[in-house]
Amino acid sequence: MKLLTHNMMRSHCKGAVNGFPLKLNFSQVNIKEIEFNPDFINRMLSRLEWSVLVDTATQLGVNEGLPEMLPENQEIDDEETLKKIHHVLLEVEVVEGELECPETGKKFPISKGIPDMRLNEDE
Predict the structure, then answer these.
(1) At residue 71, does pLDDT exceed 90?
(2) What is the pLDDT of residue 39?
(3) Can you give the C-alpha Rg of the chain in angstroms?
(4) What is the mean pLDDT of the segment spanning 47-61?
(5) pLDDT confidence of 48, banded at 50, 70, 90?
(6) What pLDDT is stored for residue 46 in this prediction?
(7) Closest Cα to residue 106, out of 35, 17, 30, 11?
(8) Contact between 88 and 62 (Cβ < 8 Å)
């Protein structure tokens, strides 16, 4: 599961009002090189919860060079900064672990990079 995906996921458990951000517990993380596309990264910036991305990247130890805050216009011209954001969003992949709903504590496994967000009927 890429950190871009994590940044956009919410829990829909009964009793969860917001369900965001999902707490990430990881046991295996891989780095997989992906072609750099600065336009895509700039388009995604306005859709991200930036503080959640920075916190998650810090938890995984991949936050080096990430700005603490985005510029007000949410666009970055510096290619090196865009490459660091690209790396965190698209090249860092949680292969094994779990996501946890911040409100209910329900845990969702991540196996082979795929989060399983299925709920039972009573959840």
Answers:
(1) no
(2) 96
(3) 15
(4) 97
(5) very high
(6) 93
(7) 11
(8) yes
> CA-to-CA distance for 7 and 46, rounded, in angstroms?
12
What's the token pair of residue 39? Answer: 């336009």
Query: Which run of H or E residues covers position 111?
Result: strand 107-111
Tokens describing residue 41: 């990264």
> Which 8-state DSSP code applies to residue 81?
H
List the helix and strand counts (H, then E) for the chain: 4, 4
**93-102 burial code (b ≥16 CB/10 A, e <16):** bbbbbbbbbb
Q: How far is CA 70 from the centre of its chain?
A: 16
Amino acid at 83: K
Pairing of strands 107-111, 23-31: unpaired
